[in-house]
Write a structure and sequence with these properties.
Blueprint: E1 16-18, E2 25-27, H1 48-60, H2 70-83
């Protein structure tokens, strides 16, 4: 593991993870199966054209004008390039 304290994007079920010096080490202590109700959010039906238009709006401005901090916008752009894999 690298000295990154961000343990995200790891494949599969991670039961133990640590950084190279083991200063941060996380281990699963137990796994319990519980039955929780799944609550579905109500959505709005749209057609493909509406979806593509909204997706393009998001790509152009991921914060949708809510945050105008240059540092935040830079991180959003970096993440968009790193994690966005558009299949269309």
């Amino acid at each position: 593991m690298t000295d990154s304290y961000k343990f995200r994007g790891l494949p599969g079920l991670i039961l133990e993870v640590s950084e190279s010096h083991e200063y941060f080490k996380f281990s699963a202590v137990s796994i319990t199966k519980v039955k929780l109700p799944i609550e579905f959010r109500k959505g709005v039906l749209i057609n493909k054209e509406q979806y593509i238009n909204k997706r393009n709006e998001y790509i152009a401005d991921p914060s949708q004008g809510k945050i105008n901090n240059p540092e935040y916008r830079r991180r959003i752009e970096e993440n968009k390039k790193k994690y966005n894999n558009s299949l269309e």
